[in-house]
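ESCALATION

Customer reports they have been waiting on this structure for their group meeting. Please prioritize. Original submission:
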Amino acid sequence: MATKTSVVNDEALVAPIIATEGEEPIYTIKVPGVQTGITDDATLVMGFYKQNSGTDLSSTYLTGSMSVSGFSIVTKKFQNLKAGDWVWDVRGTVDGVLREIIKVPYIVKRRNQV
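Update from on-call: job pushed to the front of the queue and completed.
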């Protein structure tokens, strides 16, 4: 679970998550500091990127939809994970403000590396 959160340059960063090729995880993100709520609408989006790349690869590596429950967000399901250093993020409206909610360094390892 993405729990260790800090804010650096207005980005909500967490400690890296390590996954293994072939896994299809879904994460629940507890959003700290929410006062009135997280809007569950078209502004709630998730991106998936190769480290140091601006190309969004979410159509290849993410499937399904996100949902909101209280002050938590359930991510899309990850799929087709390949070894490497990745980053995923969630953007949406929190307390009436559109912002990046979380950015997660994501390390995917081959099965024989774990």
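Sent to customer with the following note: Helices lie at 58-61.
Escalation resolved.
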